[in-house]
């Protein structure tokens, strides 16, 4: 059609005239533009083939994707595509379906979140049209209600025989899946549960006041939205459904994926809609149902909530399985609560022991049984009354509901690392994108970059660059083959190949792996039957057991490169695939060359692998530390251990010049059996008694000798432990020690000095060897490259000092409980030769930390340092006063690369975002006591013991204030040399509800609320669609005194509204 562009221009034909309609006649064709009423042969002219005209009319639609502006309701012509760049798998329910979608940012207003839930409803019958019209009316009306626990539609449109509604995407999923997939957290779960119950009842009360009945209240219609605090807020969706919908969902159509059916939560009066044969009665939609219909359903939800919070996730899952598809809380035959429900209620009563948390459970349970789950709807309390009673319960126990030792994770994230948790999380994730369009819609051109799918935009498009930069920071590990290295290595080294071929059953003999999407599936019972005679079935049976599958459940996995992933390519990897080096790996595409088995712990072949990693890194990556860095001489440690060939001694490194040395990163695990003191340092200069060294030290010496390096640095031997001055000097230089080391040995799996680390602590992975019908030799094993478990959550990496050691090390050998991982500037590699990557952890692999941060734009840089500090705040110290010291070197490197002042976890260039840290929900921080001559400011999280989290504030949507500046004491006019904040503090007007919902104090009480002041750090840019929030640092008057200025200290942060903040303020200094 390119040769027709001239005719288009001469006929003044453009996008404005689309779409066009074509009419074919005996004389030829005529077309009519949407902008004209007359038929014409322009713009194509004469002589065009009918196929070209037909092709144009078919391909015109991508140019018509709508731009949604401020209106709520749109009417689209049939065939017009939606501006989607991502579209997840649909969950079907009745005649509607819900998908996660992402709109192109150029097609929606700036203030609207691009990720949404799209509800698509078909308009095939009169009943469906009737229902959709009611839905449209309800959705438009509900947009006028302002409540934090209600989901409101963003926009709606009709297109042909489809109605489309767009809602905010609930990142936490729905309550039904949440209760099944997340462990409760003791008191934290009860506090969160009670707060959410109050909020849900308040929303239901508002709906009742406005004349609405929900009609289908259940956990699947209660969604979880993340809060700035790190917790979740529950919100009710699908409000105001007609009885037509209730009838339709009571007879679920085949293919639905929803397990929590409407019938379970329906009240006794639900039976009025059906006759004795279970069929809907005539004119059932005319039967008047009370708004107290919802009270029964909410009572059912509360019972399930209590089961999870008090009895635990497993008991909730058992209860869920016992409530079959047609089983309800109400047994209409016996006219009583169902036996299974009564059994769990009794379990709850028996579990109550008299603690304050149990009293809450007991009172909420009584409220549900005595005022909500009543047969006669007139006897049930109103939503307003129940809301007031729940508030009373919360207020009665508010002083007790402050957990002292709860887990330091936001509610909704658990510490469980078992495979079942991963599996369930993947099952509820709807983000597996297809082509981003409906099946019958044209496709836009698209690009793919590290998991980011987007419609192609000009390279200078700022929004696309920022979005892409942040998207790359997902905390997710990917596994890829590294065959260039593997082929070189196996050409020089003998293999650890399994000696015997595997025993295989007839089915496993026929397995094919050539196709990129090859699958393996079968029932656990069948694997178990053949496990004793087939190695492959034995492997699959073991994996099924670890996933928690039941005997009649099916394991289904699909190949993704060199792994097989559970259910689909968005599931977790459960199998690893290796191509035998003796065969051509290209036959099977992207499969790792190698073997599932590891070399023996102290074998020459294993050390040869370590040497090869170092050689490649030195000669191909250029990551080795040379005698000079940037023209400056490298500063050597004060002391090093000379390991020699058979004995060790301590050497003072003064004028020795540049020396290659290794550094040991390890856990002390209490006092070590041998360390350098003022009393033995002279002896150690002659010889260190090898037999008295802890096992970790002995094994580090073995590795150093095997790698043909003469020197080793170990903190407890190279720093004089009973000399405070030596310790203070050397601790300040710790960052340089690891940065200048040739390589770091990390005793990652060892929690104490005498555990040892060379020998893996877990058994080798189960494996099977198969000869596929298409030829070649493949090895299949359990997936064991679990970096989160083996590396991030390992004993060593829970220690505060180690984050700096890892980040500043140029290269590291991580000895984990399963295998060795090699980390350098080229990424993370494992002993089984895979290459692993994670955008957040890539910062640690940077051989010139933190230069890798520069490839990100401003938002990405902020996200990286905030992730870094959040992780650090959760690490352990033997002495909490080390918290600001153990990260000094890392902070200096960050400040240098970001070219800004950085002190005490705060960067001047990003001052407001640096200061908007807070404690996680339901956890209080404790001030750390420091020596008199060391001052850590109150506005720094380093002054407190406990985890922190940063406010989740969108980028480019906030106007930052200049009311707060980072200054030295001299700059404030005081004699102090301490770094302070110079700020404008304002009076605040806060009521009890504000204090509960909008304020987060660091340590709870300890000051007069009347002395509370606020420093405005920023405010949302004005948007018509949302309330403008102010981001505020909370301070109070200090007992300290300073010259010419009042001295304040930080006590927390808040997200306030304009009426909460006084106009005028005063200049203060915040210590």
UniProtKB/TrEMBL annotation:
Organism: Fusarium oxysporum f. sp. cubense (strain race 1) (Panama disease fungus)
Alphabetical keyword list: Kinase, Transferase
Gene Ontology molecular-function annotations: ATP binding; protein kinase activity
Xref: Gene3D superfamilies: Transferase(Phosphotransferase) domain 1
Any Pfam family hit: Pkinase
Residue span of region Disordered: 419-455
Protein name per its UniProtKB record: Serine/threonine-protein kinase chk-1
Transferase recorded as keyword: yes
The organism's place on the tree of life at top rank: Eukaryota
Domain Protein kinase: 85-390
């Amino acid at each position: 059609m390119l040769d027709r562009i001239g005719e288009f221009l001469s006929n003044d034909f453009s996008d404005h005239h689309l779409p066009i309609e074509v009419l074919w006649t005996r004389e030829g064709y005529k077309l009519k533009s949407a902008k004209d009423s007359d038929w014409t042969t322009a713009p194509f002219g004469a002589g065009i083939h009918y196929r070209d005209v037909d092709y144009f009319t078919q391909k015109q639609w991508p140019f018509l994707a709508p731009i949604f502006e401020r209106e709520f309701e749109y009417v689209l012509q049939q065939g017009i595509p939606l501006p989607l760049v991502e579209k997840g798998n649909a969950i079907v329910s009745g005649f509607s379906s819900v998908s996660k979608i992402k709109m192109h940012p150029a097609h929606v207003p700036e203030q609207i979140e691009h990720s949404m839930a799209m509800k698509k409803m078909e308009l095939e019958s009169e009943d469906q049209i009737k229902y959709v019209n009611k839905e449209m009316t309800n959705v438009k009306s509900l947009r006028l209600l302002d409540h934090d626990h209600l989901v409101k539609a963003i926009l709606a449109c009709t297109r042909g025989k489809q109605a489309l509604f767009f809602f905010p995407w609930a990142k936490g999923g729905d309550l039904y899946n949440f209760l099944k997939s997340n462990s409760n957290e003791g008191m934290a779960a009860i506090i969160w549960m009670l707060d959410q119950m109050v909020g849900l009842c308040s929303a239901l009360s508002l709906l009742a006041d406005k004349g609405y009945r929900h009609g289908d209240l259940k956990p699947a219609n209660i969604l979880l939205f993340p809060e700035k605090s790190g917790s979740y807020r529950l919100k009710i969706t699908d409000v105001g459904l007609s009885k037509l919908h209730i009838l339709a969902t009571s007879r679920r159509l085949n293919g639905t994926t929803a397990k929590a059916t409407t019938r379970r939560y329906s009240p006794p009066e639900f039976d009025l809609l059906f006759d004795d044969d279970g069929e809907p009665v005539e004119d059932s939609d005319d039967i008047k149902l009370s708004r107290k219909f919802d009270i029964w359903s909410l009572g059912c939800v509360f019972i399930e909530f209590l089961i999870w919070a008090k009895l635990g996730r497993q008991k909730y899952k058992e209860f869920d399985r016992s409530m079959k598809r047609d089983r309800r809380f109400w047994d209409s035959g016996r006219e009583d609560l169902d036996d299974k429900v009564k059994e769990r209620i009794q379990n709850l009563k028996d579990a109550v022991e008299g603690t304050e948390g149990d009293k809450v459970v007991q009172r909420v349970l009584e409220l549900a049984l005595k005022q909500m789950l009543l047969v006669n709807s007139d006897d049930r309390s109103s939503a307003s009354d129940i809301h007031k009673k729940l508030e009373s319960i919360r207020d009665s126990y508010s002083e007790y509901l402050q957990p002292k030792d709860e887990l330091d994770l936001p509610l909704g994230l658990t510490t469980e690392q078992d495979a079942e948790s991963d599996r369930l999380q993947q099952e509820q994730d709807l983000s597996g994108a297809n082509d981003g369009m409906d099946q019958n819609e044209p496709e836009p051109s698209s690009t793919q970059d590290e998991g980011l799918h987007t419609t192609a935009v000009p390279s200078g498009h700022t929004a696309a660059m920022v979005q892409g930069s942040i998207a790359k920071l997902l905390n997710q590990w990917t596994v890829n083959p590294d065959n260039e290295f593997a082929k070189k290595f196996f050409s020089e080294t003998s293999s650890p190949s399994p000696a015997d071929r595997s025993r295989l059953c007839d089915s496993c003999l026929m397995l094919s792996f050539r196709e990129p999407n090859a699958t393996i599936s079968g029932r656990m019972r069948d694997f178990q039957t053949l496990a004793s005679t087939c190695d492959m079935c034995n492997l699959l049976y073991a994996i099924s057991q670890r996933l928690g599958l039941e005997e009649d459940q099916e394991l289904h996995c699909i190949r993704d490169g060199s792994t097989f992933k559970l259910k689909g390519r968005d599931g977790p990897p459960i199998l690893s695939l290796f191509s035998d080096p003796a065969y051509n790996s290209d036959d099977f595409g992207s499969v790792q060359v190698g073997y599932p088995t590891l070399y023996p712990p102290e074998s020459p072949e294993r050390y040869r692998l370590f040497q090869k990693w170092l050689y490649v890194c030195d000669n191909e990556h250029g990551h080795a530390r040379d005698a000079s860095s940037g023209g400056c001489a490298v500063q050597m440690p004060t002391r090093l251990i000379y390991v020699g060939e058979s004995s060790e001694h301590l050497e003072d490194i003064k004028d020795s010049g540049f020396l290659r040395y290794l550094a040991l990163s390890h856990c002390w695990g209490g006092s070590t059996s041998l360390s350098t003191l003022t009393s033995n340092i002279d002896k150690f200069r002659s010889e260190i008694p090898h037999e008295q060294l802890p096992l970790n030290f002995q094994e580090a010496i073995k590795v150093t000798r095997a790698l043909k390096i003469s020197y080793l640095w170990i903190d407890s031997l190279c720093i004089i432990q009973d000399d405070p001055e030596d310790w203070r000097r050397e601790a300040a230089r710790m960052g340089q020690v690891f940065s200048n080391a040739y390589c770091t040995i990390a005793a990652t799996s060892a929690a104490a000095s005498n555990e040892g680390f060379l020998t893996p602590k877990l058994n080798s992975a189960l494996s099977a060897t198969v000869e596929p019908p298409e030829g070649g030799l493949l090895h299949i094993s359990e997936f064991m490259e679990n970096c989160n478990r083996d590396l991030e959550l390992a004993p060593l990496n829970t220690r505060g000092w180690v984050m700096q050691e890892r980040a500043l090390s140029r290269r590291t050998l991580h000895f984990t409980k399963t295998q060795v991982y090699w980390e350098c500037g080229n990424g993370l590699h494992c002993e089984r030769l895979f290459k692993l990557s994670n955008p957040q952890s890539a910062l640690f692999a940077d051989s010139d930390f933190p230069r890798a941060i520069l490839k990100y734009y401003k938002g990405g840089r902020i996200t990286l340092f905030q992730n870094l500090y959040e992780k650090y705040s959760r690490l352990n110290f033997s002495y909490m006063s080390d918290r600001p010291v153990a990260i000094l070197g890392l902070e200096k490197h960050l400040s240098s690369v970001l070219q800004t002042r950085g002190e005490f976890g705060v960067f001047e260039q990003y001052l407001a975002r640096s200061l908007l840290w807070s404690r996680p929900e339901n956890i209080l921080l404790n001030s750390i006591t420091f020596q008199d001559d060391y001052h850590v400011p109150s506005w720094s999280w380093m002054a407190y013991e406990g985890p922190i989290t940063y406010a989740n504030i969108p980028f480019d949507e906030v106007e930052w204030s200049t009311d707060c500046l980072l200054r030295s004491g001299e700059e404030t006019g005081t004699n102090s040399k301490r770094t302070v904040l110079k700020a404008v503090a304002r009076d605040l007007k806060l009521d009890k509800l504000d204090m509960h919902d909008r304020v987060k104090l660091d340590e709870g009480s300890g000051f007069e609320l009347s002395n509370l002041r606020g420093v405005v750090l920023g405010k949302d840019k004005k948007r018509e669609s949302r309330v403008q929030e102010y981001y505020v640092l909370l301070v109070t008057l200090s007992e300290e005194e300073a010259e010419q200025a009042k001295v304040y200290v930080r006590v927390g942060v808040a997200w306030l509204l304009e009426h909460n903040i006084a106009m005028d303020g005063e200049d203060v200094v915040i210590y």
